What does this fold into?
Amino acid sequence: MPTLAVPTTVPVNSSIARMKESATLAVTARAAALKAQGVDVVGFGVGEPDFDTPASIKAAAIRALESGRTKYEPTPGAADARKAIANKLQVENGIPVQWQQVSITCGAKYAVAMALHMLIEPGRGDEVILPTPAWVSYRPLIELAGGRCIEVAGSFENGFRVTAEQVAAVITPRTVGILLNSPSNPCGIAYPVEELRAIADVVADHPQVCVLSDEIYEKLVYPEVTPGLSHWSPGSDPRLSDRTITVNGMSKAYAMTGWRLGYIATPANGGGWMKEFIKLQGQQTNNVSSFAMPAIVEALTNGAADVERMREAFARRAILVHQRLVTMPRLSSVASNGAFYSFPDISACMGLTTPRGRLIDGAQAFAEALLDEHAVAVVPGEDFGECARRNIRISFACGEPQIEKGLSRLGEFVTSLR
Ligand code: PMP
Ligand code: GLU
It folds into this structure.
């Protein structure tokens, strides 16, 4: 006789139970399920390059696997991979970081999550400033670490960028950090260097505030859209370098999302901060796949031409998407000059109804109706911040024919609303 299962009475940790699931991953799963049923879905959901990982990077990992590199390695990664990262951060970004102050993590996502745990003392009322619209995972991760997320909204009129004055206005004695993400997911914009420097000027006056700079889209900046635009790392500012934690990774620049390779670096406390981080990582996940180490070295040493090829393609798509969006009724958008997102405002669609009778009363309803009625997956704005309830995110990390098809359907959809 099988024993009857007794239901557990142990509740899941309430911070986890309260946490929302990732909206970007949820939309992606929904679109994949529809595709599996044979629906011709255009996927503007997930932020993931459509390109394959460059061949020489794959070859480096294959060689490593074949030569038996299949064992544990030091928690923060192999010395040569950490040296390649430190060298990149010093030479390209001007960040004064030693290789011992770098750790390779399971995606940039893990690096962001654990950096927040390092910064925030639960129960102390610690605040982290988050310029919004911002990536869906930041707020849940700040809250899970026990912090309060202080959203500062970048206005549509200012191209979704927050100003130094806005940042200055929300700093309190409880502020422990500000999370910067330029180029931005979901806004698809990169801050001009002088605007980031103005924010750095404000932070420099408040020694209790650390900067967590998520630079995962660093390589995807489009001077083709905004002449002269370039990337700047706050960790290179001598006033801030000792309290800036820089996060980056292989996912976006090298089309390596599935490899799960990110990294974190900071010279803070003469390397003491990273020692603590590595201790935490050692208890939680340990090193990333050992055979990935030579792939990191290969990407950072010889990958520039591949990165540039993909960047140029994204720049062309950014221009194409904006050209198409501005012709559509009831949508307003800012031209993307970074990352691979457009974040149109759909306010003019509010209160209207689809031909199948669905009321558009928010971005969630818009995205659901667009997927159900026109088979286009986009991410609704709600989870990107309070100010983003009337936006949708379009990821244009897909081929131009897909972009053309998806935007034609989007145009038909917004035109059909009554
Ligand atoms: N930061 C931002 C802004 C992102 O969009 C993403 C999404 N991939 C990540 C971090 C995490 O990247 P990964 O974990 O793939 O390195
Ligand atoms: N960051 C990507 C996105 O925003 C991948 C999914 C995720 O991790 O959120 O779509």
